[in-house]
Input
Amino acid sequence: MSSQPKPYLTPEQYLALERTAAYKSEYFRGEVFAMAGASPTHVLMVSNIVAALHGQLRRRPCTVYATDLRLKVNASGLYTYPDIIVVCGEPQFDDDQQDTLVNPTLIVEVLSESTQDYDRGGKFAQYRKIPSFAEYVLVAQDECHVEHFVKQANGLWLLAETDRLEDVLTLSSIECTLLLSDIYEKLQFPTA
Output
């Protein structure tokens, strides 16, 4: 029995298709991966985080972007859509279309059952290849739990975790704070 090979696309072919597609897809090493739609909980959490960061960054040289801005990892050719990106300084884009960012400072991903292993592992490994990338926040949506990675001066990454609503994350790369109670505002967790 033979299986049909997956079609290989060049980055240029992917971008031409993606820019006219009705849904978002990621791209890596010639393959295109369709992205699932987000749950209401996921969308609310992204909105909560964007609102908290936007208010702090309004009069500063950093900009927060949510969900639909594509990111390219130049070192590997990965094209992806992080939940939240913050850029400090001038945003740099992959081409004249200005729809593919290449210089994030902070990335936030809201974890789901289907993506959490990739977000913690392979995707984070790809993100670490971006020279401007300095901070990574992973937020669970089924419980109060946040993982916060900060790039140190020696290039190593330091992890801090919390599961307390009263805690505050200090986002040193963008000089902001993020209250867990703000992240999880209006959310109800299932009881055991």
About this structure: The longest helix spans residues 40-57.
